[in-house]
Amino acid sequence: MNNKQANIYSKRIAPWVLPILLVAFWELFSVTGIVSKETLPSPLDILYSAVHLVQTGELFNHIKVSFSRAFIGFATGGSIGLILGIVNGVYPVAEKHLDTTIQMFRNIPHLALIPLVILWLGIGEEAKIFLVAIGVFFPIYVNTYHGIISVDKSLIEMGKVYGLSKNKLLVRVIFKGALPSVLVGIRYSLGIMWLTLIVAETVAADSGIGYMAMNAREFMQIDIVIVAILLYAILGKVADSLAKLLEVKLLKWNPNYQKS
Fold first, then answer.
1. pTM score, two decimals?
2. What are the backbone angles phi and psi of residue 167, rounded to the nearest 5°?
3. SS3 54
4. Rounded Cα distance, 223 and 49, in Å
5. Helices 58-90 + 92-106 axis angle, to 10
6. How far is the C-alpha of 45 from the C-alpha of 230, rounded, in Å?
7. DSSP at 110
8. Going residue by residue through the chain (260 aa), what tens digit of pLDDT does each one get?
9. Contact by Cβ (8 Å): 139, 188
């Protein structure tokens, strides 16, 4: 195997070896009866169920609803977290008045607020979006704030020496220096986003992937429950891959993200 083939294997094939082996052994154990299909359906049975849901259009409707909730909640909570992280990182006066309060609320598990949120907002879309927004707010805020205050002070002084205005200094030096930390917060918050949505849709919902799983549980349709779980995993992986692609695009100047 030459260097080019080894590089292709390590980047494109190697990450999928273990998942493929797990699915193969799973199917083997199901066929041989080591694992009962009543306990855990085989991968082929799950695939047939997924195909049926696609043919009826039910699957895409649930995905559309869940994705809409996730996107709106992420955009709302992420935007607020980003803005407050920048403000508190740049202006010491804001940090003194706001950061302590935010850190106090950060230590409250946001999923513990579900009973209160239902009482306030009911079981409509507002409750689910609110929970997602709260969940993604704190990772983005903390990483943005930490990235801002960790920017090399000598770079800021150099920018001032070169006569950069306050706005250009904020965008070209401070925010750019904090960008790796901000993107880490975004990747972490994407995982929190799907975790929050799973819980929110299984507690109080009449649509979405979580609702599909809970409804299938009532009728002991384990194959559909697993389809829902796999959907969350796939959507989470897609979101993380997009975030990694964003890192590569925005951090070309950073030696750690340059292509070899």
1. 0.83
2. -65, -45
3. helix
4. 7
5. 140
6. 14
7. G
8. 556 666 666 667 777 788 889 889 988 888 888 888 788 888 888 999 999 999 988 889 989 999 999 999 999 999 999 999 999 998 889 889 899 999 999 888 888 888 888 888 887 888 899 999 999 999 999 999 999 988 888 877 787 777 777 788 887 888 888 888 999 999 999 989 988 988 888 776 778 888 898 888 888 889 899 999 888 888 888 888 888 888 888 887 777 665 54
9. yes
